[in-house]
Queue: 2 jobs
Job 1
Amino acid sequence: MMQNILEKTLEDHRYWTKEGAVATYIPELSKQKIDALGIYVHEVNGEVYKAGDWNMPFTIQSISKIISFICVLQDNSIDTLYKKITVAPSSDGFNSIVNLETKNEHRPLNPMINSGAIACIELVRGNTLEEKYERILNMIRSLSNNPYIKVNESVYLSEKETGDRNRALAYFMKSTGTIETNVEELLDAYFRLCSIEVTCEDIASIAAVLANDGKGIIDGRELISKKICKTVKAVMTTCGLYDGSGEYAVSVGVPSKSGVGGGILAVSPGKMGIGVFGPSLDAKGNSIAGVKVLESLANKLDLSIF
Ligand code: DON
């Protein structure tokens, strides 16, 4: 039954890919196949279902921000975090610079937007930025249960070459003391994290751990504490789709995180992790067909948490 639902949902919503556009501000992403659409469902009982382009690789992009955030929460108290980054929703785009100057005592509003995610990396345990990066990459590998996950070098170089908005955000944060480390090294770690290549299966598997209160699906071992899972799901709900988070909470109602590579990682607590991929994006940088597929699935399976 689930298999039929997934296949029909993809078919019914594929036309939405024509309404959006692939990201072009990172030139390498503009090469993506615009009508690709895939889904992978990983239930907490271990059952898996997949349809469409579920095995097509794409870069994780901003979905890596939840893994950096998990590491930050494991390595710091919430009060230490709040001195640098808060968890307030933003009504501006993911790479907006304006709030850093005008709001929140120069702290990034939340860890899901670019400024907050760049600042988060510095708070992760590690003597060097390389060690901090490795810690986050290893967390992605362990939560997805895929030790082979690695960076897409072409996307990484493309990001590094063209990432001037992120440079502006990071240097501004250095000027206000939010960032204390070497900005170029920090950005290098950020660009690499965004360029990590995954499939729907990988992100669904990460989501399944969050859906399972932080315990591994196969062995039940605690990978993330229940308390941290709650914090991450709360911030995903309020900030995970940027300025689209409110509408998404109404239409889908499932804690989620999007990326400009076209992925959406969605967590249905106690039930399943879902990974969707469709590189055609809406104006806010979220997968246009991916959101529609998740809306339809959430309605059919009654997944909204509200
Ligand atoms: O830094 C950037 O702009 C990208 N590497 C990531 C942005 C992103 O994924 C926003 N997501 N919807």
Note: The chain has 13 helices and seven strands.
Job 2
Amino acid sequence: EASSKPESVVLGENIPAPPMVYISGEEMTHYASQLFVEQWIKPYFDTSAWEVFDLSCKSRDETDDKVLHDAVAAGARIGAIFKEPTITPSALQVKEMGLSKAFGSPNGAMRRGWNGITISRDTIHIKGVELGYKNQVLFERHAVGGEYGAGWDQVGEGTLLTTYLPKDGSAPFVVDKRDLTDENNVVVVYHNPYDNVRELAHLFFQRCLDAKVTPYVVTKKTVFKWQEGFWATMKEVFDADYKKAFEMEGLLERCGGDLTHLISDAATMQLIRWTDGGFGMAAHNYDGDMLTDQIAQVHRSPGFITSNLVGKSEDGNLIKEFEASHGTVSDLWHDHLAGKETSLNPLGLVEAMIGAMQHAAALDVERNPEDVSKVVVQKKVMNFTLTLREAMHNTFRYGQGTRDMSGPSGFTTEDFISKVAWRLQR
Ligand code: NAD
């Protein structure tokens, strides 16, 4: 069997891992993350510069959510964040866990607190292993606005007015007036902040160009007329800065020679038909949430999708938060608690760890231009993370993958992690 020894990283070397924020969550993904940090990272790195925040429901409750504010502040300061999946408690979970209130999604607070531009979600591929899509699929999901930030209420009969008060003091006007004739209505107000769509466009088209895939923009603008602005900005940036480069790479041939808009319902169908991959999609927040879950299913498992939030700090540097695209995998956690075997696919989590460690190292070099030792550490982080990826992929290639991939003969959560640890030491 091939081994994957890190070139210039040795066991017990205690390389100072560059500062990053580590957000810990709960259930199965917390358990598995603890195992791989202990077995894969700590034998090579001194992680004392990591700032750790526990965003389990219990910890949020005990600190009256101060821990979330502290985590967001630390993320904005440091700029590189690894996040385990967390629980946004349902009404039932509030009761079961004895929480003082139903805490909101920490993800929403982070997207707002780090001026989130996009959540990039891409398929993970292992050479020689067939998954759902043959070539890469990239996704850019607008990180803010839409249904997630909605204000709403349940009301009876009457009239609903939505009034806009301009900041410059000019005359207010009514955006919408509607008469409610039912006795029972839910009314909802939300907005899409569009200032950062230009930045999203640049990130998306550049990523598609680097990966050599064809970009598409997805909205429901035929019916939801207010979404026209999203498409218009994407098209404007594309025509001005990217069209030529995509033409030269021959990447517009599959879409009729120009940037193509897809209605979201058509996109859901194409995601199932276009299993050759080789394309990218950019969409609004909620559409992006749904479409990326569909990509995860076509691509065999949510464990084979990355999820990176890209935002901006006050000084204009990119804040990057890396997480898996899936949740806390409660069903496997309950099996684990019941003493049953589990098989968690950690690839999405580990790609997040790799991304966060690499971004942390790059920022540390940028912030300390005089300090050559930071460059040495960055090289070691690159070596180590590439070796780690190879060790995981080899484990899958040799038929020792997790059960979502390898079927019932696949490894358990614990055996997969030990096998990769063993391979790292060879
Ligand atoms: P989930 O993504 O945890 O699981 C959905 C299904 O996919 C389950 O059957 C699970 O076993 C399977 N699955 C997911 N990832 C897997 C992996 N890596 N390996 C093997 N199988 C995998 O979603 P859920 O069950 O709907 O939610 C569980 C909890 O996660 C909820 O409390 C929810 O609030 C939370 N959640 C958190 C985030 C986040 O923090 N980003 C995102 C989604 C859900």
Note: Residues 194-299 form one domain.
